Amino acid sequence: MGYVVAVTAVRGWVNSLTGTLVGPGRPLALGAFRQHPRSPGHGAYALLSRVGRGADLVAEDTVDSPRISASIFAGTDEAAEIAAVAYANAVASLRGAPAVMGETRCLIADDIVGPLLVDNHDSDREQYQYLVDASFFMF
After folding, report:
1. Which residue among 21, 50, 83, 111 is the one 20 to 30 A from 33 at the CA level?
2. Bridge partners of 106?
3. Nearest by Cα to 88 from 123, 34, 46
């Protein structure tokens, strides 16, 4: 089994989608991170983490299948939902189009769950959260 540094690869891929997903005026304005940004400013952002593995892809022992969870945060419920839906659609687009993600190649993303509202609104931080989980098949 060849394991890959999946969270970093997916973060780089998400942050490269500046024409559609990431950047000022885009649904995920601040991009993707591995930990909460110190000063998130205005706009939605994603916090990515590896939460396990998906099922093996037939007999391929060189393919890693990390399950990546994206926690989408924004200052309003609507902005968080819009960003989560946009992220989920970007991940779904990998179903028919393999993508290079840094030094890794993603064959397919599948088993997408979400967007799901996490009911833990933090009034001190003024943030709403949605989750989108997916299995990425990478080598």
Report:
1. 111
2. 99, 138
3. 46
Q: How many CB atoms lie within 10 A of CB 122?
A: 10
Question: What HEC string does the chain produce?
Answer: CCCCCHHHHHHHHHHHCCCCCECCCCCECCEEECCCCCCCCCCCEEEEEEEEECCCCCCCCCCECEEEEEEEEECCHHHHHHHHHHHHHHHHHHHCCCEEECCEEEEEEEEEEEEEEEEEEECCCCEEEEEEEEEEEEC
pLDDT for 122 beyond 60: no
Whole-number pLDDT of residue 3: 80
How far is residue 130's CA from residue 139's CA, in Å, rounded to a whole number?
28
Q: Is the pLDDT of residue 43 over 70?
A: yes
Q: Over range 18-37, report the average pLDDT.
A: 92
pLDDT tens, residue by residue, 54-88: 665 555 566 888 999 999 999 888 999 999 999 99
